[in-house]
Amino acid sequence: MTTHLFAGLEDPQPPQTPPQAAQVPQAPDVAPVVPEAAPVATPAAAPLTDADYFELAYLSGSDLRAGYSCPDDAAWRRATPAKSDAMTIGTAVHMALLEPIRFAAEVVVKPDDIDGRTKAGKEWLLENAGRIVMAREMHDRARAYAGAFAAALAAIGIDPLGWWLDYERGIVWSEAFGRCRCKPDLLAVQPTPNNAPGRVVNVSLKTTAKPLSSAQWTSQVVSGALGAGYDLPEYHYARGIAAQVLGDVERWREVETWHVIATTTGAPRLAVVRVPDDIMERASRLWADRAPVIAAAVANGLQGVVMEALTIALPRWADSAMPDAFGDDGGDA
After folding, report:
1. Which residues contact 169 (CB under 8 A, 6 or more apart)?
2. For residue 74, what are the CA distances in angstroms to 11, 211, 272?
């Protein structure tokens, strides 16, 4: 049974360390332990269903990521949702770690002898329509990560038996420019003797095809991702969690953001990394500048083809470099 947090969905009134990666050992192949419901300070509102949550036209972390370079890209993502193979693998790993019962029901291993071009193969695919089909190796990898998840939580300092845990709960709140939403993978709150929040931790599950062969390389992978647009969603989540748990978005600095990163290639590895405070401070400044613009683009939707007429001035060296730079196929100009 999931223990839900003590703040409802009502509108709120509007440690400094570098990233350190801990390699997490494999644990027995068991599902994550979820504690029974504990007393809470205030009754929780009923969690939003996935269908209700994704119907909300509020600014999300995915919008911020898509619109990081161009706000119109966020509107395009909303209008033309697509799911890559990497996203499908990420979804399956999320299920294995957080929803093992759903993983068992909705993820199926594709037999080696199934060929989708044959009659038998087409029948098998039809029988498993709507389920996630995975190769045996990736399915076993996801199950191994589920078994090691308790060790990942221990590396963060989370005690599943003594903390309040909430898996993928939709959160909504208001900002000056409009309504926002987020859906943390795992929200963990440490209770105190007076039943108030202690540590507030946002655990974000990530998958990567890059190897995590050392702590230094893992830190470089995480830093690269945070510098390429993933910092805005993490800050956005911190504000939403602060609104939900602490009652004030401006207390976002009290929310710790941790990544649990699983490799999808090479030897199975989990890495645990805390997003450093200076990254979050930088993201707070970017968010203040970009979030209202991206929210407006999402609200306005796609407005047809965006066309810009530009006049550029080439440097002198470009006159001689242009033919080589663009190639010459010998055809008419």
Report:
1. 4, 5, 47, 48, 183, 184, 187
2. 24, 30, 29
What the chain holds in terms of domains, given with CATH numbers, is: 22-326 (3.90.320.10)
Coil, strand or helix at 45: coil
Q: Are 25 and 187 in contact (CB under 8 A)?
A: no
SS3 call for 204? strand
185 CA to centre of own chain: 7
Size of the chain, expressed as the number of residues it contains: 333
Q: What share of the chain is helix, strand, coil (3-state, %, to 5)?
A: 45, 15, 40
pLDDT at 323 over 60: no
- Position of tokens 């993978």? 185
Q: What is the pLDDT of residues 262-273, one digit of tens each?
A: 888 888 888 888
pLDDT tens digits for 169-207? 899 999 999 999 999 999 999 988 887 789 999 999 888
For the chain, give the percent of residues with pLDDT over 70: 70
Cβ within 8 Å of residue 137, ≥6 positions away: none
129: number of Cβ within 10 Å:
7
pTM of the complete model beyond 0.85: no
